[in-house]
Amino acid sequence: AWAWDLKFLVAKLLFCFGIGLAVYAACRNLPVALLLTFSSAFIGFFAYRFNHPAFFSVCYAPWLLVCWLEITQAPTARAAGTWSAYLVLSSWTELNSGTAKEAYMLLLALHACGFLIFLAVPTSLRAKKLVHVCVAGLVLTLLASPVWLTFFEALSKAYVPYKEAALAYQIQPGLFIGLFDDIFYRALNPLWLVFNPSVNFLVLLGSLFALSYFRRLWRNRIFVVIAVSVVASVALIFGIVP
After folding, report:
1. Global pTM value
2. Are 204 and 224 in contact (CB under 8 A)?
3. Which helix (H) or strand (E) element contains residue 152?
4. How confident is the model at residue 100 (pLDDT cuts 50, 70, 90)?
5. Please, are residues 74 and 121 in contact by the beta-carbon 8 Å criterion?
6. What is the pLDDT of residues 3-60, one digit of tens each?
7. Cα dist. 224→52, 215, 216, 217 in Å?
8. Which pLDDT tens digit goes with each residue over 145-187?
9. Percent of the chain with pLDDT over 90
10. How far apart are CA 53 and CA 197, in angstroms?
11. How far apart are CA 122 and CA 75, in angstroms?
């Protein structure tokens, strides 16, 4: 039992540290990065999934974005190669975090976001960095072949309740405010025994500031790519895309 407690604690520390590094890599603002590092431990998701394998999938996920940001901004090909190796390690960790749905969707979404950042942001040695990234992808594909081959073989034979379209559930757009605190999900649906995960009010405050400074931030390509990725995720979560 104590080993599992320790694993949950270490995973949460990795999540906070990863969030802080991602923020610092994106904006190079240490106070903001520290603020997000400490506040990220107190998001609604951790009350929603406090003893579920998805806990680890979410906790390891920020490191994917950290690696992509560092590869994009690396001053030398050698530094990009080092971060590409870390990208393999973080992808391998995410792949084996303990879930299928959450881990694989996070892998796809964050790699897509990171690769778009790599393409959109001006960077030196782009061709050499792209070679490092492609080699890292090949290494990961070969290294993880026992995992993903087994997954696809099981997928063709498995049965889950989610195959029934009537059981699929998306949050209605009117509950968007619940994204920032799960109390709104429960207040508007007091009879529900199941609520939904959320972040916290600090993220809401940051989002409002982003809207206030939208014209300035729109010139920041990292912001644009992450914003587009967030909009795509929100469209799936809140039923805009059925």
Report:
1. 0.90
2. no
3. helix 145-155
4. confident
5. no
6. 999 999 999 999 999 999 999 999 999 999 999 999 999 999 998 888 899 999 999 9
7. 32, 11, 11, 8
8. 998 888 888 878 877 776 666 666 778 888 888 899 888 887 6
9. 71
10. 15
11. 12
pLDDT band, residue 189 (cuts 50/70/90): low
DSSP 82: H
Instruction: Give the C-alpha separation, 107 to 68, whole Å.
Output: 12
Three-class SS state of 125: coil
Question: What sign for the dihedral angle of Cα 234, 213, 219, 114?
Answer: negative
Query: In this structure, which amino acid lies at residue 156?
Result: S
CB-neighbour burial class of residue 127 (10 A; exposed 0-12, middle 13-18, buried 19+): exposed
**Residue 184: CB partners within 8 Å, gap ≥ 6?**
175, 177, 178
Q: Residue 143 corresponds to which tokens in the numbers above? A: 């290294």
Give the whole-angstrom CA distance, residue 231 versus residue 208: 15
What is the torsional sign of CA 126, 84, 66, 137?
Answer: positive
Helix 62-73 × helix 77-95 angle, to 10°:
170
Distance in angstroms (rounded) separating the CA atoms of residues 161 and 158:
10
Asked whether the CA dihedral 55, 136, 109, 223 is positive or negative, the reply is: positive
Instruction: Record the tokens describing residue 17, joined without a space.
Output: 């540290």
Contacts with 112 (C-beta within 8 Å, 6 or more apart), sequence order? 229
